[in-house]
Structures are given as C-alpha cells and as structure tokens.
Amino acid sequence: MTETTPTAPGAHPDRLPALSAFSLPTALVVAQDGQVIARAGDVDAVHPLASVTKPLVVWSALVAVDRGLLALDDPAGPGLPGATIAHLMSHSSGVAFDSPAVLAAPGTRRVYSNFGIEILGQRLQEATATPLEAWVETTVLEPLGMASVLVPGSPAYSGSGTAADLSVFARELAAPRLVSADLAALARTPFLPQLDGVLPGYGRQVPNGFGLGLEVRGHKSPHWTGSRNSPATFGHFGQSGSFVWVDPVAGRQAVFLGEQPFGAVHKASWPALCDQILAL
User: Fold this and answer.
1) CA 137 to each of CA 141, 153, 228, 243: distance values in angstroms, whole numbers, following the listed order
2) What is the domain count for the chain?
3) Is 191 contained in some domain?
C-alpha cells in the first residue's frame, strides 16, 4: 500500500483506502482552494503523463490566444476544411485518433484525436515562431516553477513530470494566472455541448463534453471521477495511469500519477479514490 503523509492538520489521508488497489508505486497530491492538504507516495518521482500532456499544451496555446498570436477561430489547416483551432482543442474537428483521416464534418461529432492535438502543436509553432517544447516551457512550465515537467515530443502524449509539479498546474487551472479569466472559463466549459462521442476506456457518452483541452465531467457514466464529483469537474486522464481534475464546486484539486498503465484496476478504483479525496 502507498505510504501517505499529511501536509496540513485535518487532512485525514488514512481515508484513502482505494490507493491499496495499486500494485506499483503511485503518487497523489490533493489541494483545497490552492493549498495542499494531503500527499501520498513519492510526489517527487517522475512519471509519464500520457494524455495529461494535452491540457498543458492547450494551456500554452491559450496563452498565445491571449497574446493575439493565435485565434480560436483560425483555420485548423489543410485537409480539415471548416475546422478551427477550437475544434482541434475540443476534439470536434472530425479528424481520426491517430491519422489524418477525416471521420466526421467539423462540429458534428466528438472524435477524440491525438492527431488533432498534434496538428494544434504544429499550428502553435507556426503562430509563435517558436519550437513547441520551448513555447510550453516559457509560457507555462517556467512561470509556474514546474521544473520536472518535459514535453519532448508529441503534444498529445509525450509529457512527463512529478505529481508535485502537476499539482501546481491543477491549482493554475483552478485559479488562472497565465490565462485570462474569460478564456479560462471558456476552456472549462463544454464546446459544442450537444456533441456525442466515445470517451477512451469508457465507451460512448451522450453527450461527451469537452472544453478546450479539458474534459468536462457533466453526467457521464461510466466515468473515471467519482460520484461525489460535481458535473462542473474538469480535467484529463492518461493511459499511463494518470489524472488531474479540478472540482470548482468543492474547491478541490487532485493529481494522481503512477507506474502502472491504465487498466482494469484504474477503472475499478479511481471513482472510489476520487470520492475518498472529496471526503477528506
């Protein structure tokens, strides 16, 4: 079982029995209104982020939007007629998961797409005249002091870092300093909220709400967050067995990383763990 260490009085980390389901090391950081209230495991160990890379990269793209270098309604680029930057960010461009094949017209279906986020990365590099890794580092990682986090390749899944640093990003999502309030609010609100689609690992969701780089919980079932999480909860999970979420109703943020790739144990244990996090 993962060792737990409270970081503030009254954190009650012993109320996280769901952590015992994981056979390989995990790390968890829980914050309340921007202050860490509980930690579990080695929060300074570097783990792969997988798709939790996406919100980091999209947040850096939103910085570019705020600076007037990129616009949400800019064209996505050749091969995706009618699709925009916002469509790429919200998985509504219609492009396939891992290829340039177009599976649906833009704005008609939620097609979760690594390839779409990689197109976004290319457009961001062009708009800023800066290599993607350098742009993410100078606009998000350095300002937040996230020294352990790297995004060395694909903007969709190549990131790595520690739970401690990812928790800093979760607190940025909850109370933005790098992105304007209006744009941050748009990012955590479902874009084209009526769209249905498949949430990887959890099947078809009707609707399947995504904001800009952030999944919005809504009333999805099944789901990786808990029954106590409000419908306004937003965040992302990754196939490396990672998640970050912010529940603005509870004022709570949580980050989970580990060495065990996403599988049956995560599907079975994450919802209970999230409920336990909210009950601390």
Assistant:
1) 5, 13, 34, 21
2) 1
3) yes
